[in-house]
Amino acid sequence: MNSQPPLPNNEIARLDALRQYQVLDTPEEKVFDDFTFLAAQICATPIALISLLDGNRQWFKSKVGLTVCETSRDVAFCAYTILQHKPLVVKNALLDPRFATNPLVTSDPNIRFYAGAPLVTSEGFAIGTLCVIDIVPRSLSLAQVEALKVLSSQVIAQLELRRHVTTMSHTIIQRQQAAAKIRSQHDFIELFYHRGMDLARKGDYKGAIADFNQYLLLNPNGVKAYYNRGMACRQLGDNKGAMADFDIYLRVNPNDAEARSNRGLLRFELGDYKGAMADYSHALRINPNAIADYDPRVMGAEVGDNQEVVMNYTQSLQLNPDDTEADMSFLKTDADDREEPGAIVSYTQSLHFNPDDTEADMNLPNNGSGLGEGPGAILNYTHSVHINQGHTPFDLNDYTDESVQSNPNDATTYLSRGQVYLNMEDYSKAIENYTQSLLLNPNDATAYLRRGHAYSELGNYPSAIEDYTQSLQINSYNATAYMGRATAHFKLEDYISAIEDYTQFLLLNPYDATAYISRGHARSKLKDYSNAIEDYKKAREVSTIIIED
Q1: What are phi and psi of 122, to 5 degrees?
Q2: Which residues contact 197 (CB under 8 A, 6 or more apart)?
Q3: What is the 8-class DSSP label of residue 297?
Q4: Any bridge partners for residue 89, and if so which?
Q5: What are the tens digits of pLDDT across the range 191-243?
Q6: What's the pLDDT at 99?
């Protein structure tokens, strides 16, 4: 009785190499069946096999002339073939002591002839064989043996290709899984950013900042969040935090005109006029239209006596002398431009382009500029009365106590004398006469309007508002009353009410650039910058239309 086949010296490594091909117990494949068919044809044998030697069996990947799928390794001829790297040829198994008593020889299928070429991997492991079998003793020519060797190398090449494809498939799957994981992580991180944007749009700036913080914690390179967090910080009044975020964003995106303009606006509000001008200049180089939406002249900043700002306004007017918005907006800010001669010049300039602009005339003293008994104030008031009332005599002698006493029930006399005192900036006397006129004629909307102006000049804005309201109750289409009341509300920092009155005024005078600017300032005070910008844009459009006309 023959003994069991010996094991290769590298059996553990050989088995590991076999399993790397992941071919055991796989279905039949035509490419391997073609090799066994060719082997049987070339060697003229009834049986051909591709046999793979596992730990305790030989398994047939492809077979011709047999129906079984595997046999025990103990009876496998191939178990001897894998011990060498050259073909094993057994001409007559009955005469070979290794196989004479093998059950495959002594019974079905009655093997007599066997020739096998080992399947040797590139690492040198013989994992199986391509073999041919006959039931009669015989031999092969050298050409047939060589052909068997060539076919065996092609079987290995296919197995290598199979392993490569399998490895690549696994690699692709792993990469896809890794990419999916990264996408999932990215989507999770982006969720904080998008939620922060949504909260900011809804006005929940604290919630937005919390989400932007979480986003930047998970993605420190997410520069876009710095800009939007800066915008949220600005809405909450955290200007230092906003500036820090704008700085980080612009270091990475130095050519973002919108961001430059926003930082310029913030710098302007913080009093850094040089920095603001640098940002505006940079934004203008990137996008010539960038400054139109963020012009510091119309953003409601507190200009004060800053000479640089005045120089910039002056330069703007030199470049565009018909820009009435520049003239008017300089004084329409919430600045305290007391005793500033530039105020008179600017208003006068505006009246050159709009000689019938009674609002400019009437609002000049109402701006709180404290011009005292200046001739410019009287001139402008006189101009306004000529337009609105048609009165030519404004000599106080025409309205002496004697004339009043001769006609004490004439409300018009008190009204006219009050106007003269108002022109002379004797606001207390003006109020006395308007009050007397109203006692005689309590439904005189004009008297309430003018007394409201006088109260406003004295800084008594609550009383001014009451008079403007009374005037509007009598005549709801009195645009000047809406503007006067809006100005008084603005002075009292009641910006919401001021916006309502400016809006009412604009319904009656939709082409008044100054009203758009004033409403824009009020909105800017409420940090409603988007709507403020829309008002400033509208003011520009209206000014352009007026100039073209």
Answers
A1: -65, -20
A2: 208, 228
A3: G
A4: 115
A5: 999 999 999 999 999 999 999 999 999 888 888 899 999 999 999 999 999 99
A6: 94
Token pair of 79, please?
């178990």
pTM: 0.40
Query: Which residues are within 8 A (CB) of 362 and not within 5 positions of it... i.e. 6 or more apart?
Result: 380, 381, 384, 453, 480, 484
Rg (CA), the chain: 50
When pLDDT is cut at 50, 70 and 90, the band that residue 271 belongs to is: confident
Contact between 119 and 35 under an 8 Å Cβ cutoff? The reply is no
Q: What is the mean pLDDT of the chain?
A: 80
Determine which helix (DSSP H) or strand (DSSP E) holds 479, and give its type and residue range.
helix 479-491
The whole-number pLDDT of residue 3 equals 67
CA–CA separation, 75 and 148 (whole Å): 22
Q: Can you give the pLDDT at residue 314?
A: 38
User: Element (H or E) spanning 64, and its range?
Assistant: strand 57-64
According to the model, what pLDDT value does residue 359 have?
39
In the chain, where the domains are located: 11-170
Q: Could you give phi then psi for residue 202, rounded to 5 degrees?
A: -85, -5
Phi, psi of 134 (to 5 degrees): -135, 160
End-to-end Cα distance, the chain: 122
| Cα 197 to Cα 216: distance, rounded to the nearest angstrom | 14
Structure tokens at 104: 């495959």
Question: What is d(CA 257, CA 290) in angstroms, rounded to the nearest whole number?
Answer: 6
- The answer as to CATH 3.30.450.40 being correct for domain 11-170 is yes
Strand partners, 59: 52, 70
